[in-house]
Design goal:
Elements: E1 3-14, H1 54-66, E2 74-75, E3 78-81, E4 91-94, E5 101-110, E6 113-126, E7 130-134, E8 137-141, E9 148-154, H2 161-178, E10 190-200, E11 211-216, H3 219-238, E12 246-251, E13 256-262, E14 272-273, E15 280-281, H4 284-292, H5 298-307, H6 313-320, H7 323-337, H8 343-360, H9 377-383, H10 389-402, H11 406-413, H12 421-434, H13 436-443, H14 450-460, H15 467-481
Parallel strand pairs: 11-12
Antiparallel strand pairs: 1-9, 1-10, 2-15, 3-4, 3-14, 5-6, 6-9, 7-8, 10-11, 12-13
The protein binds adenosine-5'-diphosphate, magnesium ion (MG) and zinc ion.
Adenosine-5'-diphosphate (ADP) binds near residues 8, 156 and 196.
């Protein structure tokens, strides 16, 4: 029988708030010495009381609105009870039956086909501390404990690893556009859990036993673990076996999943309302205010670049992949408008030379020395005939290194295009005189060799000659010799 995978993802994203979820400790703990961002609240000391971080609630609602979720009037926090050394209080404050949002979706684009993936809920909770195991000992760093953690739970609506991958990339892109999460997986700012079941192809059934894989700390781990798990379940079902409900872990080094808990050992979290926190009433005008704060999101931006500016789908996608790049491009286009420089010409420079140099030098857009307002200079100077396209690329490289203006570089290096007919004519004559053999071949009927002679003239002028004019002059000179 042929099977179809059913995949649902739970994505945890650390929020970029200044302080932690329920205390005043700084949430920016990266690189800090262990146990320096701690206080009685996040250490879980008896008698300490949590206070809700308003910015974290706002970030969560903002995110939920970006995913078209409904924001219920009331929300509350609940205790999720379990025991693990990295859980300071013996429970995690999370949200159970009244989350901050529910019923949204995100659109993915799978090779040109768009598809909506349902989002069941976006809720807010707190991160745990971190354990380190070394030399037979276990050490704990509590800096991460209490950092605001947003959980985005999808509907089980992805049916291939590729869909799960595209969904994850889209989520990360939107979180970064919103500025609510760094999306930095190497630092653990985004973590995945994958739920996977198989059903007969064409079935609508969602009651198949599913396996949950926890602790997927990168996109790559999520993809590999999901691939592995689909293959494992396929093999079991094809052999007439039954998939057991369990929670698994992913062993990155051995490229395999392993059982963490079977169904019998499944946790009973004994959720109950957090008695130390008030219920939240989410005022409608607050939601409206947050909705008005939503920036132009990647899909809208991409659509605008295609329909209003005429970019190709590919260029529009790469330009909008990161919000900062898209903003850079927008500024360049704005500056170009006044000077009649086409948005497409600017896109060519950005996706071509700029991206190439950024990649070569491993530079982020924020570190690029060329101001977006300087970009239109290049297509403008090329179309005015001041420099050729080839020279323009050299100028651009100089600009990238120094941030200097195109005109200043052209003047300093004497790179302006030679369009002086008389001067070029003299060079053409000299080149023809120095190349008697190709000229003879041309006169003997091998007309394609004219291209070689044009190339020689360009070389003699270090690429600065106006190529159209050189073509004309070489053809003229040769025809006179016939
Ligand atoms: P629980 O409440 O037990 O954690 P949920 O029903 O809320 O489980 O779902 C948790 C995750 O499992 C969600 O991301 C959801 O999309 C996914 N999921 C639910 N049913 C299936 C299924 N049949 N196959 C794969 N994933 C599923
Ligand atoms: Mg789960
Ligand atoms: Zn604290």
């Amino acid at each position: 029988m042929e099977f179809e995978p059913v995949i649902g993802l739970e994505v945890h994203a650390q929020l970029l708030t200044a302080s932690k979820m329920f205390c005043g400790c700084s949430a920016d703990y990266a690189g800090a010495p262990p146990n320096t961002h701690v206080c009685p609240v996040c250490l879980g000391m008896p008698g300490s009381l949590p206070v809700i971080n308003r910015a974290a609630v706002e970030y969560t609602i903002l995110t939920a609105l970006a995913f078209h979720c409904a924001i219920p009037e009331f929300a509350k926090f609940d205790r999720k009870n379990y025991h693990y050394p990295d859980l300071m209080k013996g429970y995690q404050i999370s949200q159970y039956d009244l989350p901050l949002s529910r019923d949204g979706y995100v659109v993915i684009d799978d090779a040109g086909a768009t598809k909506r993936i349902g989002i069941r809920r976006v809720h807010l909770e707190e991160d745990t501390a971190k354990l380190f195991h070394a030399d037979g000992a276990s050490l704990i760093d509590v800096n991460r404990a209490g950092v605001p953690l947003m959980e985005i739970v999808s509907e089980p609506e992805m049916h291939s690893v590729e869909e799960a991958r595209l969904y994850s990339i889209k989520l990360r892109q939107i979180l970064r556009y919103l500025g609510v999460c760094s999306g930095d997986m190497e630092k653990g700012a985004m973590r995945f859990e994958a739920n996977i079941s198989l059903r007969p192809k064409g079935s609508r059934d969602l009651s198949q036993t599913r396996v949950e894989i926890k602790n997927l700390n990168s996109l790559r781990a999520m993809v590999h673990a999901t691939e592995f798990e689909i293959a494992r379940q396929t093999k079991i079902l094809n052999a007439g076996g039954r998939v057991e409900q369990e929670t698994m872990g992913w062993d990155e080094a051995r490229n395999t999943t392993y059982t963490q808990r079977s169904k019998e050992e499944a946790h009973d979290y004994r959720y109950f309302p957090e008695p130390d926190l008030p219920r939240l009433q989410i005022a409608r005008d607050w939601v409206a205010e947050l909705g008005a704060r939503l920036p132009e999101l990647p899909d809208e931006k991409r659509e605008r670049l295609i329909s209003a500016l005429g970019l190709s789908a590919y260029d529009a996608s790469v330009i909008t992949a990161e919000r900062e790049v898209a903003a850079y491009y927008d500024r360049a286009v704005e500056a170009g408008k006044a000077r009649g420089v086409d948005a497409k010409a600017i896109a060519n420079w950005v996706t071509g030379e700029l991206f190439r140099l950024m990649k070569e030098t491993n530079a982020e857009i924020g570190a690029v020395k060329i101001a977006p307002e300087q970009i239109p200079d290049l297509p403008a100077l090329v179309s005015a005939g001041t420099i050729s396209n080839t020279i323009a690329k050299n100028v651009f490289e100089e600009m990238f290194k120094s941030g200097q203006d195109a005109r200043a570089i052209i003047a300093a290096k004497g790179l302006a295009q030679i369009s002086d007919r008389g001067a070029l004519q003299a060079i053409v004559e000299k080149v023809l005189a120095e190349n008697p053999k190709p000229v003879a071949e041309y006169l003997g009927g091998k007309e394609t060799i004219a291209r070689f002679l044009v190339g020689q003239v360009m070389k003699a002028t270090k690429g600065q000659a106006n190529p159209g004019m050189v073509n004309e002059l070489v053809a003229e000179a040769l025809s006179k010799m016939k």
